[in-house]
Amino acid sequence: MTTSTPTKQEPRAFAGAARAASYIEANDAPAVTETTPSAPPAVTAIEPEPILETDPVMEFKQEEDIDLGALSVAAPPRTAQRGLRGLLGKVGVKVAPGAAETAELQTAQELARFEETVRQATWIRAVSVLVANPKGGVGKTPTSLMLGGTLAAIRGGSVAIIEVSDDPGALTFRSEGSPNRGLGELVADAETISSAGQLAGYTAPQSSFAAVIGSVGWRPRLDDTAVRNVAKVVDDYFGIRVMDSGNQPSSPAFGAAVMTADVLVVPIFDAGDAALEAAQLLEGLKAAGGHAAELAANAIVLRLHDGRPEHPQVVARVDRILTSHGISHQHTIPFDAHIAERGQLTLAKLHPAARHALTGAAADVVRTLQNTAR
Prior knowledge:
Blueprint: H1 17-21, H2 56-61, H3 68-71, H4 83-90, H5 99-120, E1 127-131, H6 140-155, E2 159-163, H7 171-174, H8 183-189, H9 196-200, E3 204-205, E4 211-213, H10 224-237, E5 240-244, H11 252-259, E6 263-269, H12 272-288, H13 290-297, E7 300-304, H14 312-324, E8 329-333, H15 337-340, H16 352-372
Parallel strand pairs: 1-5, 1-6, 2-4, 2-5, 6-7, 7-8
Antiparallel strand pairs: 3-4
């Protein structure tokens, strides 16, 4: 009888041990399938940037008339503020300004540009404006006062308006105030002036912030030395000097005024005699050559109107005279009742149209000074 030996049973927890026992780890290194490396992604060649001959920053700095602040501000859309259109805007209906209001807005913008030109101009020395025309009674003194006053009002002062006529003129009479000392006293004391406060004692301060130096009584006839001495002391304490000249272009005083001026302003009426004498002045300056000829070449003509009738044929003749002498800088100053009163002049009393025209002329003067003052 065969006795069977019972088979030893493995615990269920080690049921996988038998399978693991039959596993034999090979000593050989596993086969590695060689693969061809993929080509690197194509790279587009980058061309080198061209070498700039000019630094872009420097090139940008050389741009003229660029105001980054102004350029970065978006102008708001215009809506009517007056009349029926303005009334509609108040109830929520936005309407563009009419023709009249648009014209007023454009005029205001133009005036602002003129004032900016005058206010922002700078020089590295004092500059001078000569107001001249051999013809008497053409508005040299009012032009000197109102043009100088406009410059001073916009720039905040530092403008002196001085008399350079051979004999006493009407500058003090047409300006504000009644000073005790003036041009005659300054000529005598010019070499002793050592401060702005001392020089102020010879001036008539104006509401426009200009300072007037005219004759307060009899004084000796001016000569070239007197004009040069006064110009020197004024230039030491003022940025702009406006000179009101007389009617003798051949005199030594006028010659000194020409040599110390940077720009020439010629006031005329639309009358043949005023234009002809102005033309003769320009011809004489051109014939003199040098600095005088340069003044004539850059002269600015102000065509004043005093309310008297102006014949169209005479006006056309004046146009031809000015054109024949190459006068490209011309400004029309409309009639102003305050100037026509022939009394003391106050800039704030001018009609807005005259004030606007004078501001445009002042801007032209400043632009010319920027080109001629060296």
